[in-house]
Amino acid sequence: MAARFIKIAAFYFVIAIILGIVMGITKAFSYSSVHAHLNLVGWVSLAIIGLVYYAYPAAGKTALATWHFWLHNIGLPVMQGSLFLMLYTQSEGYVVGTIIGSLVLGVGILLFAINVWQHARD
Length: 122
Ligand code: HEM
Ligand code: HEM
Fold this sequence. Notes:
By secondary structure, the protein is mainly α.
């Protein structure tokens, strides 16, 4: 799973940087939380996780790693997409998406932690 995590991380990096550049040019600083989370929970966290699985290949081959991959990559876009729409439309209704997305993401991260505790060995 190492390469899959690193490849999807690079995808979030591109999106987050485009958003950061557009924010800077248009002075749309209200989107900084979306930019920050796509960079840190998308690019930085997923790239580190990819490197963890490169260092501990046995951990990267488990069902927990696959479940975490999908929960993270469904939860984060739902959470940050909803936050983006909430800010863009000034409509509080989208908060449901941020809550559901963050819970899905949180479960994924819990599975990652369990996986590392169980399978990362020297
Ligand atoms: C071309 C690259 C980038 C551009 C143009 C850019 C642009 C911006 C802008 C305009 C803001 C809002 C600043 C404000 O509200 O005062 C911001 C905030 C932020 N950026 Fe970036 N950014 C870039 C790269 C990155 C990267 C690579 C990371 C992390 C890995 C990052 C993390 C953050 C964080 C955490 C914040 C929120 C800071 C806060 O709340 O004070 N940015 N960025
Ligand atoms: C389910 C996971 C997460 C949730 C629900 C969450 C939620 C939040 C919330 C509500 C804020 C305040 C936003 C604001 O003031 O506009 C925030 C800010 C921030 N979070 Fe998270 N967060 C999560 C994960 C993370 C992770 C894993 C990182 C870093 C790796 C991170 C980095 C930050 C940073 C740097 C800020 C301040 C930047 C900014 O919003 O301007 N968050 N987060």
